[in-house]
Amino acid sequence: MSFELIPSAFSKNPAFQISAFDGSTGVNRASGSRQIAANRDVDAISAWLMQFQTSKSTFDSYRKEAERLLLWSVLQLSKPLSSLVYEDLQAYRQFLLDPQPVDFWVSTPGRRFGRNDPRWRPFAGPLSASSQRQTLVILNSMFSWMVESGYLVGNPLALGKRRSSSSPKTVTRYLDPILWLEVKAFILELRSTDLPRYHRLRWLFSLFYLGGLRISEVSQGCMGDFYFRRAPDGNDLWWLRVVGKGNKERQIPISGEFLDELLLYRSYVQVSGLPSVGEQVPLFGSARNFRIRVGRSSIHGTVTDLFADVAAKLRMQGDMHAVRRASQLESASAHWLRHTAGSHMANSGVDLRVIRDNLGHASISTTSIYLHTDDDQRHADTSTAHRVAWSNS
């Protein structure tokens, strides 16, 4: 099965008449046996996309990223996707932050056009840092799949920064970026099938991911635990006060995005405005009555039920990659979301001292107790670098 990857307005460009488009001259194409029938770059991309057909939002998102890179490779570099090397992908990373020339790559602000409209463009504007990271995660998955299928000899994105082999024990019980995207996509699709479940899951997973909370902290918290204080620049910075292990209190920075998710949930449960001091509405309430607190086991069940649903959908795809991801989800627990938050913050470059304070860890290493992070800077670092990035399209 083949998918339309290049809208007609772009496929008529003279550059697509050269071998750069079909990839026949790609220097990274493998010469041995393959597990796919594709003999062109565009067909290899289509084969990779087949596994995401059952989820329209995931498919559209992944096709968009593959299409953008293919267009950039052919039209900007005049080289096949299968010839891209590490340095090319670093150049593409910078291009995403400022696609030039704007008239050629970026749509008219505030306007949307069909894929075959001459006014269609690949980008709506420059990508934020978090969107750029998500783009590279998806493309890394695509290149890795092409290597595993025997189409490419190597993945140019696999040469990025890696942790030292002498690093201390690493967390393995977490959702990698691709699996996290699958979970988010499933929740977003509930908007059209089960709106109450969508709102509860979106808020619950935002709490775990943006706050890095323990399941007991979600169960015991209330809206009155949110508060704000005025920063030196005059802005009100919001925080969430939680009591964790050992009855230790910590303050979690509430980014603008976190605040938006809070307001979305409160609007759904018909509680107006921002939380007030002493408000006893639970942080996460019962599905039947949001004012009734739910226990740890109920929250755990809500999360694992969602994981099971996503896993079942992945298994329907049938390929070994989807089955492997499904197996991971079937063994996951709610606590994995806290590990996911910490792992993604670390991989996004958030200072380890910030992560330590946000998650309430005792130390980073034997010397970390001597490190200190200014609270206002910690708030800024967390808000800038750590986002859940729900798509509302």
UniProtKB/TrEMBL annotation:
Keywords: DNA integration, DNA recombination, DNA-binding. InterPro entries: CB (IPR044068), DNA_brk_join_enz (IPR011010), Integrase-like_cat_sf (IPR013762), Integrase_catalytic (IPR002104), Integrase_recombinase_N (IPR010998), Tyrosine_recombinase_XerCD (IPR050090). The keyword Metal-binding does not apply. Gene3D superfamilies: 1.10.150.130, Intergrase catalytic core. Residues 43-147 form the Core-binding (CB) domain. Residues 170-384 form the Tyr recombinase domain. Belongs to the 'phage' integrase family. PANTHER family: INTEGRASE_RECOMBINASE PROTEIN MJ0367-RELATED, PHAGE INTEGRASE-RELATED. This is Tyrosine-type recombinase/integrase. It comes from Limnobacter profundi.
